[in-house]
Amino acid sequence: MIDDELDKFSSNVFQFLGIDKEVKGLLVKKHSNNLQILGDYSFPNTVKSWSELLNSKVLQNVTETLLQYLKKDIDSLLQESKSWALPIKKVIEIKDRVHIFLERPLAIRTALSQSVITNENILNNLNKGISLVEHESLNSSCVTSLRLRYTVNVIKNLYLLNEKCSDIKPKVFVTTRSTSKCEESRVILCGAVLNAKTGTKESSISAEELISIRQDELTLIAQHKYGVRVSTDSKWKEFIAHLGESAVAFELLQIRPSSSIKIQFDASSGSSKGAAFILYNCARLETIIRTFNEKVNEGSYPVLPDLDEIQISLLTHEDEWCLVFNYILGLPALLKICVEVSNERCEFRPHLICAYLSSMVKVFSQYYRKVRILTEPRKHLLPVMFARIYMLKSLNDTLKTCLRILNIKSVSQMYFYFLLQSLILRV
User: What is the DSSP string of 89-121?
Assistant: First the structure.
């Protein structure tokens, strides 16, 4: 069971309003951007918006706001939220909507504490489960078969992480053939890989050749950034080989499985930048955390205190809240929407994890450029550094967990991250 604190918060708001039904849609909307202005959540304060849930036949003539109609007010919402895991700091009204701002320090502490449990549960589920996912025979070396293999392996992981998959009887069958039928199975279609120039299914370039093309592309990028020694250094070549495979996996997974995907088959297309950017930022996080630990071991920094002793209120940068609220707290919600299982539908959406990671590292990268995380070991600077290290450890674990679900090795797992250590802090 993976607890979703964001979902619990939405449920708390519905309960406050006296609505216990399972509600679909965005009546209680979580925001992702402009959180300082719009708040973290909002809901419409008009009776009309909620008419289907209020079970009343006289709502057409109601001129009151929703809160007035329900005989509720903002003060009672603030008071009731004090017992919630994510309490509310303030509530304002903007154009017929109630906008909710969470008590950030308390929410961040909850997020960092829950993140440890969440990531452990995910990894445990991945390591000890049997997913009833089968696929068509993989006897071809074409790139569409490579996409099928990547897709099947991620679907197996998502199957293990979603409780609703127990309702799938008896198994899931993944295929590239739209006409395929498998008795007593839920069929998942994996779309073909198309050549972006011709628009037709690629059959002349093999899976191995595509990986080689992406490795060449990454070699060119690394040569431009770090020098010609990349092409001759054996450890760099090994690193590029792993990175090329990861880039191809990410490229083939970032589009909805049932849709075909167009690929540029040349070493100058820039197609590897998405995966490379994620893994380079993974290296940044690993470097920061390892450097901090090394300084602790050599006595330059004190030992990181327990979370209860961390001054979470010092995490006041807007990017810090965005990283916690949208990504560390948002992981359970992400995994939930990656699988849809019902009598009418069975769909897996690994591409949403790719989008989530791309968005996460974009925010982290801009935060990294603005904020100096590892500081001088001066007493007045240590508390904020400790708070940031705790946050980045949770972010790093979240990132690596997502890569594990995608079956992509993180930089730390490749054992080559030390090659970037002297360089990545300047990227």
Answer: EEEEEETTEEEEEE-HHHHHHHHHHHHHHHHHH
